[in-house]
Design brief:
162 residues, alpha+beta, Endonuclease, Chain A, four-stranded mixed beta sheet, 6 strands, elongated
Length: 162
């Protein structure tokens, strides 16, 4: 298990490269946040976790299998990973972060070819979060009068120098 990488994996590098090409700027593996997230987008108050299907038990995925040897150890290990993920996600959401989870199988075969559908989906999520935070006041016409947005015009007079 010491040979298993926890950061800078091929799928993670592909995701980061594609996000950067789209103009998103991020921090990587911020140890000050719960769970040490893979990608942190501070401008959008969003965190992206890239979960391995085996290590985080992606339900219904062919890569999320249980090894036939030492089964009890693996079940306990993966269950504790899932519990820790849930706690960290709840902590991040409670402190105002948006959390996006990307699974390894979504990128696994596309990082060599075309990752744009996944990046389009993530971009749409980020832009949706931005539009929800922007509040706009709409001023409408009332009885053929346009409502003023700015303050009334005030004349300023200079005080004479003494």
């Amino acid at each position: 298990m010491s040979k298993i990488r926890s950061k800078d994996t091929k799928p993670e590098l592909a995701l980061r490269k594609a996000l950067f090409a789209r103009g998103f700027r991020y921090r990587v593996n911020d140890k000050h946040l719960p769970g040490k997230p893979d990608i942190v987008l501070p401008k959008y108050k969003t965190i992206i976790f890239l979960h391995g299907c085996f290590w985080h038990r992606h339900e219904g995925c062919k890569y999320a299998y249980t090894p036939k040897t030492n089964t009890k150890f693996w079940v306990d290990k993966i269950t504790s990973n899932k519990d820790r993920d849930k706690i960290n996600t709840e902590k991040l959401i409670a402190s105002g972060w948006n959390v996006i989870i990307v699974w390894e199988c979504e990128i696994r075969h596309t990082y060599k070819h075309d990752i744009t559908p996944l990046i389009d989906r993530i971009s749409a999520m980020l832009y949706e979060q931005i539009s929800q935070k922007i509040s706009m006041k709409i001023y409408e016409e009332r009885e053929n009068e346009i409502a003023l947005v700015a303050e009334d015009i005030v004349e300023y007079r200079r005080k004479p120098k003494q």
